[in-house]
Amino acid sequence: MKNSSQESKSSAVTIGKVLKPRGLQGEVKVQVLTNKPEAFSFVANIEKISFSGDFAYIKFKNVDYEAAQNMRNTLIQIPRDKLPLDDDEVLADDLIGFEVVNVDGKKLGVVKSVDSNVDCGNIEFPYEDVFVIETNMKTRQIIIRAEMLDEETIL
Asked: What is the reported pTM?
């Protein structure tokens, strides 16, 4: 685990963030930041875990209420190579710096950030099959159907 105030550009992937203690026994409420809940199986010292919607409730070994209080805003991370990705899946952070082009090969921008949408500075689009034709990891390009975007989306 790593505190959210620390910078991380390593081989670790953040899968959750501790929000607050839950109860008096040292359990914590965690915001789940992955669509792969099985990734939590790679987190050390978990005594008990349960999921409810976008949250996990975790009891770590040897963590009491006071220690749980001190865990607020702590990021839960696992080694990048442990994240169970399907062959057609990619991590959002891996798309930063990718060139975005339309089907004709016209450059539309470079990915600056990814949250609920991909932001290229001059365009923003959801990373969904209806817009994204291909993500080429070798050429570091994302080919999109620009004609599917609203005119306000392309600046």
From this structure: 0.66
Determine the 3-state secondary structure of 95 from DSSP.
Answer: helix
Q: Compute the distance between CA of residue 111 and CA of residue 122 in angstroms, rounded to an integer.
A: 10
Query: What does the alpha-carbon distance between residue 80 and residue 97 come to, in Å, rounded to a whole number?
Result: 19
Work out the burial of residue 26: count CB atoms within 10 Å of its CB; fewer than 13 is exposed, 13-18 middle, 19 or more buried: buried
> Is the CATH code 2.30.30.240 the one for domain 92-148?
yes
Q: What is the pLDDT of residues 18-45, one digit of tens each?
A: 999 999 999 999 999 888 899 999 999 9
What top-level class would CATH report for the domain 2-82? mainly beta
Instruction: Yes or no: say if 67 and 48 are a contact pair by the CB < 8 Å rule.
Output: no
pLDDT above 60 (res 155): no
62 pLDDT band, cuts 50/70/90, is very high
* Domain assignments of the chain as residue spans, ordered by start: 2-82, 92-148
